[in-house]
Amino acid sequence: MSQRSMPHDAASWACPHGQDARRGCANCYEESVDPGLALPFWDALAWFTSERPIPIRTLQDAHNHSRRFALDQPSAPLVYLLSGETRARDGVQAVAGLVGFLLHNRHVVTDFTVTETRATPRARTGGTARQTDVWLHRRGP
Predict the structure, then answer these.
(1) Where is this region: Disordered (predicted)?
(2) Are the beta carbons of 92 and 20 closer than 8 angstroms?
(3) Which of 42, 127, 30 is nearest to 89 (CA)?
(4) Cβ neighbours of residue 78 closer than 8 Å, sequence gap 6 or more
């Protein structure tokens, strides 16, 4: 899912809690960390801009987040990429939960504008982390 491939009306971007996914939803973020919910995994990313630079330490700390999030800064100043694995019912909720991570960390990222998003369902690999392991297992000895 990307902003370009989705309709631009607000209803298409509404998460289950009625928030615009591109602005984030703290409730979707909280749900995505609840291991009790049997929601599928999604790979999501959000490009965003910030009025102030994000400290290097914060960028490194996001990499250590238990949810497998990465916060990177490409070569452009004040442009950032947040990516990670999240649990969600659909792509809109996956984006809302990912951007909700930024809302949850407002003490670090005070003002931001999401410019582009994507979410794809995580492919099931039979419990194996690497796809090549699955191919080799199916091939047999």
Answers:
(1) 121-141
(2) no
(3) 42
(4) 49, 50, 51, 52, 53
